[in-house]
Amino acid sequence: MLQVMRVELEEQVWILDEIGEVEWFMLFQLPESADFTRSMKGRRRILPEVVDDEEVAADWREYVQPELETRFQDEIQLVASDLRKAEELGKIGRNGNLYRLKVPVEHAETWYSVLNQARLILNEDHEIARTERGLMAGDELPTAIDEQKWLIMVQYRIYGAIQEFLLTYLMGDY
Questions:
Q1: What is the per-residue pLDDT across 2-23, written as a single tens digit (0 to 9) for each?
Q2: Where are the beta strands (DSSP E) in the chain?
Q3: How many distinct structural domains can be found in the chain?
């Protein structure tokens, strides 16, 4: 039987509850998936060259980019720290272990940013948007999507669902 992860909101925390092993694995991969240093395509997407003028671009690389890199890495570390605090709820039937993750409300924007970064990098590295457009449009695709690509697409969708929750319920004033 499929276990469905629940998302709840309390006064000071938002909770991902009854997280199944597959979802937990994908969540636990979030810091790595958002790490732009592991992918040149992802790095170019997260930290693009913003201008054609070489002098301005050099200033960007020297003054702005290092600060952005530090900020992005700090955000990833905060999310990784939150993930390490997850509770293991125990084994439920044959579905494996379940987990609960409580995240302070004030971390919502950071989580949104890291989830977005991960989705951008996953898309750059695996052309997910192109594959999904093809699936929706009925374009001719390979007769099968390999298991790895399928799992990455699921990971992309889970990250998007969490972003939607954060945007709707915690960041609604933006």
A1: 467 888 888 899 999 989 888 9
A2: 6-9, 13-19, 87-91, 97-104
A3: 1
